[in-house]
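Dig into what follows:

_____
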Amino acid sequence: MKTYENHSLLPYNTFGVDVDASYLVEYDSEEELIQLLQLDLLRENKFLHIGGGSNLLFIGNYQGVILHSHIMGIELKKLTETDVFLRVGAGVVWDDFVAYCVAKNYGGVENLSLIPGEVGATPIQNIGAYGVEVKDVIYKVECIDVATQEKRIFTNPECQFAYRDSIFKRDLKGKYIVTAVWYKLSRQPQLNINYGSLVDEVKQYADINLQTVRQAVISIRQRKLPEPKVLGNAGSFFLNPVVDQNHFDALLQQYPEMPYYDLHNATYKVPAGWLIEQCGWKGKSVGKVAVHGSQALVLINKGGANGLDIINLSDSIRASVKEKFGIDLTPEVNIIWG
C-alpha cells in the first residue's frame, strides 16, 4: 500500500486536467483494501475510487482521498468444451485483458478492443462498443462492502445491467468497491461484425477471426478517437439518447436521413454524435477546448484547459441539441466537483 499527500492527478485522468488530491492511496490486494477502509484516513475524509481515469472530469482539486487498485492477475478458473471462466483483478488494464483473450482464442470481448480503463470499471459502466456490451460476458463480480468491509459476490442478474449502467452506478453507488471480475468467454467464438463501420472494415481482411476483428476495431478507434496523451479526452462524452415512438416519428419526418437503432420496444437510440454534428459543433474550438473534428462525441483538451472549460463547452452543446431536437443529452463522463 502506498500513500501520497497533495498528489497530482494529472497521470490519473485522460482529460489531462492538472488537479491535485489531498491524498492518493494505491493498494495491491483485497486484504490491503479492507485494512485501508478501517483507517481513520478514510473514516475522516471523503474518498473516491478511480480506475484508469478514462471516464472522469475533475472540475477542481479533490479535497479528500483518491483510491486506486493495483490488484492484478488473470486466473483460469474453469474450462469446459465450449466455455472458459476467467477471474481478473480489478487493476488489470482492460485492453491488456482483451489482447490476452484474443491470443488464447477466447471469444466475446474482441469488439471491446482499445477501450481505455481498467477491469474494475467494466461492470460499473457496462462498457460497450460495436454491438457488444460487457454484460454479455460478465459471470460475476467480487466486491468489498465499504461500510462493513465484508466481501460480497454479485451475479450477473444482481448487477442490474442496462445501457452504460449498472446497480453500482445507481442504488449502490459508492457502497461497494470491485476487486475482481469473472468473465465467461467462448472457446467456439461467434463473431459479431454486423455493426456500424465494422461491417466494411473487416472486408479488407482475407481471414476474419478474433485477431482480425480486434485489428479492425483498433483501426477504427484510432482513426476516430484522438490519443489522450496528445489531446486530452475521455472518449465519448455523452450517452446516445433513447427516444420514444412519438418523438422518434416526429424527428424522422423532419430529418429522414437521421441514423438510429431500433431497440424493438417502441424506443429508438439516436447517435449523439450525429445530433451534435447537426448543431454545427463538430470540429469547433472554444478557447482551450474543442469538439473533435472526426468524432463529435469527443470533447478535447487542446492544452491547459481546466474542468470548467470542458463542462462549459458540454453545457453549450447540450443546450443546442435540446433547442434543435428536443433531446436532453446526458454526459457519460463522471463529473467530480472537488
Observations:
- The chain has a mean pLDDT of 96.
